[in-house]
Write a structure and sequence with these properties.
The complex is a heterodimer of chains A (411) and B (312). Chain A has 411 residues and is mainly α. Chain A is 52% helix and 12% strand. Helices cover 71% and strands 0% of the residues of chain B. In chain B, helix 4 (65-83) packs parallel to helix 10. Classes of the chains: A mainly alpha (411), B mainly alpha (312). The A-B interface holds A 1, 4, 6-7, 12-14, 28, 115-123, 125-126, 129, 189, 191-192, 194-195, 340-345 and B 34-37, 125-126, 128-129, 132, 196-197, 199-200, 203-208, 274-283.
C-alpha cells in the first residue's frame, strides 16, 4: 500500500471531543502527524473579564466537565491570594476532600476509556460501574455529579455531616479492593499488556524537553506533582507519595494512575480522620484589590495553571488558564511517531486529553483589515447576532426582554 | 420441491436467519451480563434487523454501485449455502457428496472476501483499511482453521461429513483426541467472525466500522445477517466435526441436542470475547502463526499417531 493520509477527527468515534490528527500512513505504521486544535474555543477567558469574581468562578468551573473542581479551585486560589484571605481549616479540608474524590472519578473514567480504546469493553464496564460509587458520593456531598459548585471565594458553600464522612470512609474500603483487582488485571491480562506496553514511548529527556506533566510525565520517571513541588491548600501537611514509573509507555501511564488511586484513598482517609470543627468559609469582599497571582493546582490530568489579575473592581482584569492537556499535546506528537495506526487512539487517550479545556485563543483578530485590532467581547457578540440574523434567526426580542429582566433583578 | 423448501425455509435461509438472530441474542445478552450490564431484550436482534431494513440506503457517489450492492447478498448466500452440506441433527446433511467438507470451508471463506470487496468498493479510507486488515487476518487464521477442522476427518479417513458421523458413531471414544483441534478451530472461528480479540477489521475506535463504514440500510442489515448466519454455520461446523454424538436419536431430541451444541459454542465464543482486549494486526498474525498453526500441526500429528497405533 502506498502512503495514505487518514484524518482522525475533527469528528471521529475515538475522540470524545473535536480535534484533528491528520496521520500519514505507510502501511499500518504512522509516518507523519499533523495536529490541529481550536474546534472547541468558547472564549471563557474573555467572558470572565465581563463578569464578577463570583460569576467568573462558576464560569471557570465549566472549563472542563471532568476536572471542574480543579479549575474552580485553581481560579479562586489566585483570587484568595490577591485578596489576602485566610481560609478556615474545615473549609480547606472539604475542598481537598472533593479534589481527591474528583481525582478518583477522573482516573476511573480514564481507565474505562483506555479499556475501550484497546477494544477491552469489559474493563470499561467494570471501571465505570465502580465510578458510579464515587459519583454518588460527590452528588451526596455537593449536590451535583459533575459541576460541583462547592467552592466559593473564602471557603466552601456546603458543610459535611458525620454521616457523610462515615460513608466516604466506608466507600474507600470498596475502592481499595476494586483497585487492587484492576492492578491485577493490568499486570496479568496478556492481551491488555500486549496492547499497552512499548506503545507511545516517551523517554525521560523528551518528557523534560517537551514539558510533559501529570501522570504522563510521572510515567517517564519525572517526579512532577504540584502537590509536592509547590504545596497548596492542605497538601503540605498530608502524607502521600508521588507515584512514578519507569516504563515510559502507555502501560506505565496506566500503572501510575492506578497507584495514584491508592494514594488518593490514603489522602481521603487522612482527611476524614482529621476533619476539624469550625466555620467552612470566611466572608470575602465583593471588590478584590488590585494585584496579580498565579495559582498552580495538580488536576487529575496534570498541573493546571491559572493566572488572575485584579484592578480593584469586582471584575477581574485578566484571567489566563493553562489546562493540563495543552502541556501534554507536544508530547503526543512525539509519542505517535513510528507507531501503528491501531495504537493512535490509545496513545492519544493515554494523556487523558480534554480538548475543550485546551482550546483557548489568546487573541482574536479581524483578519481582513490591514491594521489588525483585537476583537472585543461585545463586538464578538454583535457579530454573532448579526450573523444569525442573516441566517434568518432573530433573538432580538428575547434578548431585549432578557436584558430588561436582568436590569430589574439587579436593581 | 422438497429440496427448494429445504434450501429456502428449513433448514435453509429462513431457519438459519432466525437461529442466527437467536444466537446473536444469546451472545449479546451473555456478553452484557458478564460485563455487569442488563443487556438487550430477546427481540432486539430482530428489531435491529427490521429497523435497518426500513432505513434509507445511502451509497457513496464514488463507490462501485454494482459491487457495493451485490456483496451483502453474496455474503448471505455463501454462508447459507455452506449450511446445506453440514449435517445438523442427523448423520446426513441436506446435500452430500464425497469431499463436501472442503466445499463448506471454502464457502465459509467467501463472506470474508465479500467483506473485503464490499469495503474496498465503497472507497472510504476507513473501509479500505478495514478491508486490507480483513484479508491480512484471513491469511492468519485460515490455515489453522483448515488444519484444525480437517484433523478429525483424517482420523476417520474420509472427506465426507456423513462418513465422519458414521465413523464417530462406531468409535465415540476417538472424539477425545480432537480436543486441541477444537480449541484451535474455536479461536480461528473468532477470527473469522471478527470477535474480540480479533475484531481488528472493524475496530470501532480506530477505523469506525471497517469494511462496513459506508454501508447503511438494508445492505448493512444483510451484512449483519450474513455475520449471524456465519456464526450459526461456524458453530454447526464445529459441532458436527468435534461433537458428533447423539446423531442417531429421534428427530426431536436430536434437534434439541443440535441447538444445545450450537449454543454451547456460541457461549464459549461469547465468554472468550469478554475476556480479552483487541490485539493489533501484527500481534494477531504473530499469534496465529506462532501458536495456533503449530497447535493444529500437533493435532495432526496426534491423529496420525492414533491412526497408526489404534486403527491399523
Amino acid at each position: 500500500m502506498s502512503k495514505v493520509t487518514i484524518p482522525i477527527g475533527p469528528q471521529h468515534p475515538a475522540l470524545k471531543e473535536p480535534a484533528r490528527f491528520c496521520l500519514t500512513l505507510n502501511g499500518e505504521k504512522i509516518y507523519e502527524i499533523d495536529l490541529r486544535l481550536g474546534y472547541n474555543h468558547r472564549g471563557i477567558e474573555k467572558a470572565c473579564e465581563e463578569r464578577t469574581y463570583i460569576q467568573a468562578m462558576y464560569l471557570v468551573e465549566r472549563v472542563c466537565g471532568i476536572c471542574s473542581h480543579s479549575h474552580s479551585t485553581a481560579f479562586i486560589q489566585a483570587v484568595e491570594e490577591i485578596a489576602g484571605l485566610q481560609l478556615p481549616r474545615r473549609g480547606l479540608y472539604i475542598r481537598t476532600l472533593i479534589a481527591e474524590l474528583e481525582r478518583i472519578h477522573s482516573h476511573l473514567l480514564w481507565l474505562g476509556v483506555a479499556g475501550h480504546e484497546v477494544g477491552f469493553d469489559t474493563l470499561l464496564m467494570y471501571a465505570w460501574r465502580d465510578r458510579e460509587l464515587v459519583m454518588d458520593i460527590l452528588a451526596d456531598l455537593t449536590g451535583n455529579r459533575v459541576n460541583y459548585g462547592i467552592n466559593t471565594i473564602g471557603g466552601v458553600r456546603r458543610d459535611v455531616t458525620p454521616r457523610q464522612i462515615e460513608r466516604v470512609t466506608k466507600a474507600m474500603d470498596t475502592f481499595e479492593e476494586r483497585t487492587k483487582y484492576y492492578v491485577q488485571v493490568a499486570t496479568e491480562e496478556s492481551t491488555l499488556i500486549a496492547r499497552l506496553s512499548n506503545v507511545g514511548k516517551l523517554c525521560y529527556d523528551d518528557a523534560m524537553r517537551l514539558g510533559a506533566i501529570g501522570p504522563t510525565a510521572r510515567a517517564c520517571g519525572l517526579e512532577r506533582d504540584a502537590r509536592k513541588a509547590d504545596p497548596y491548600g492542605l497538601y503540605g501537611e498530608l502524607d502521600f507519595k508521588v507515584i512514578t514509573d519507569k516504563h515510559s509507555d502507555v502501560y506505565g501511564r496506566a500503572v501510575v494512575r492506578l497507584l495514584e488511586l491508592m494514594e488518593s484513598y490514603r489522602i481521603i482517609r487522612q482527611l476524614c480522620k482529621g476533619m476539624p470543627e469550625g466555620p467552612i468559609a470566611v466572608k470575602a469582599p465583593r471588590k478584590i484589590p488590585a494585584g496579580e497571582a498565579l495559582s498552580r493546582y495538580e488536576a487529575p490530568r496534570g498541573e493546571d495553571v491559572h493566572y488572575v489579575r485584579g484592578n480593584g473592581t469586582d471584575k477581574p482584569e485578566r484571567v489566563k488558564i493553562r489546562a493540563p492537556t495543552l502541556a501534554n499535546l507536544q508530547a503526543v506528537a512525539k509519542m505517535l511517531e513510528d507507531n501503528y495506526l491501531a495504537d493512535t487512539t490509545i496513545v492519544i487517550a493515554a494523556i487523558d486529553p480534554c480538548f475543550s479545556c485546551t482550546d483557548r485563543a489568546v487573541l482574536l483578530k479581524k483578519s481582513r483589515r490591514r491594521n489588525e485590532e483585537p476583537v472585543l467581547w461585545n463586538s464578538l457578540r454583535d457579530y454573532g447576532i448579526a450573523w444569525h440574523r442573516k441566517q434568518g434567526l432573530d433573538f432580538g426580542d428575547m434578548n431585549r426582554r432578557f436584558g430588561r429582566m436582568m436590569e430589574r433583578s439587579s436593581r | 420441491m422438497t429440496a427448494l423448501i429445504g434450501i429456502l425455509v428449513f433448514p435453509g435461509v429462513f431457519f438459519l436467519s432466525l437461529f442466527g438472530l437467536v444466537c446473536e441474542f444469546v451472545d449479546r445478552k451473555l456478553h452484557a451480563r458478564l460485563q455487569h450490564r442488563v443487556g438487550p431484550p430477546w427481540f432486539q436482534p430482530l428489531a435491529d434487523f427490521i429497523k435497518l431494513v426500513s432505513k434509507e440506503t445511502i451509497i457513496p457517489e464514488e463507490a462501485d454501485r454494482t459491487m457495493f450492492r451485490l456483496m451483502p447478498a453474496l455474503a448471505v448466500a455463501a454462508a447459507a449455502a455452506a449450511a446445506l452440506y453440514i449435517p445438523m441433527w442427523s448423520a446426513k446433511a441436506l446435500f452430500s457428496f464425497s469431499g463436501d467438507v472442503i466445499v463448506v470451508i471454502y464457502l465459509l471463506t467467501i463472506p470474508t472476501l465479500t467483506f473485503f470487496l464490499g469495503g474496498w468498493s465503497s472507497t472510504s479510507l476507513y473501509a479500505m483499511i478495514g478491508s486490507v486488515r480483513c484479508l491480512t487476518q484471513l491469511f492468519a487464521y485460515e490455515v489453522p482453521l483448515f488444519m484444525g477442522v480437517l484433523a478429525p476427518f483424517m482420523l476417520a479417513s474420509t472427506w465426507n461429513f456423513s462418513e465422519l458421523a458414521e465413523f464417530y458413531r462406531a468409535h465415540p471414544g476417538y472424539m477425545i483426541f480432537n480436543v486441541i483441534g477444537f480449541a484451535v478451530s474455536l479461536v480461528a472461528l473468532m477470527g473469522k467472525l471478527e470477535k474480540v480479540p480479533f475484531d481488528i477489521p472493524e475496530a470501532e475506535t480506530e477505523i469506525v466500522a471497517g469494511s462496513f463504514t459506508e454501508y447503511s440500510g438494508r445492505y448493512l442489515a444483510l451484512f449483519r445477517m450474513a455475520v449471524d448466519i456465519e456464526m450459526v454455520v461456524g458453530a454447526s461446523l464445529l459441532a458436527a466435526v468435534f461433537l458428533p454424538f447423539g446423531l442417531g436419536l429421534p428427530a426431536g431430541v436430536a434437534f434439541a441436542l443440535y441447538v444445545i451444541k450450537v449454543l454451547f459454542v456460541v457461549v464459549l465464543l461469547s465468554i472468550l470475547r469478554t475476556l480479552f482486549a483487541r490485539l493489533r494486526i501484527d500481534q494477531m498474525v504473530d499469534f496465529c502463526w506462532k501458536y495456533l498453526a503449530p497447535a493444529s500441526l500437533v493435532q495432526l500429528l496426534i491423529n496420525l499417531a492414533v491412526k497408526g497405533a489404534l486403527l491399523s
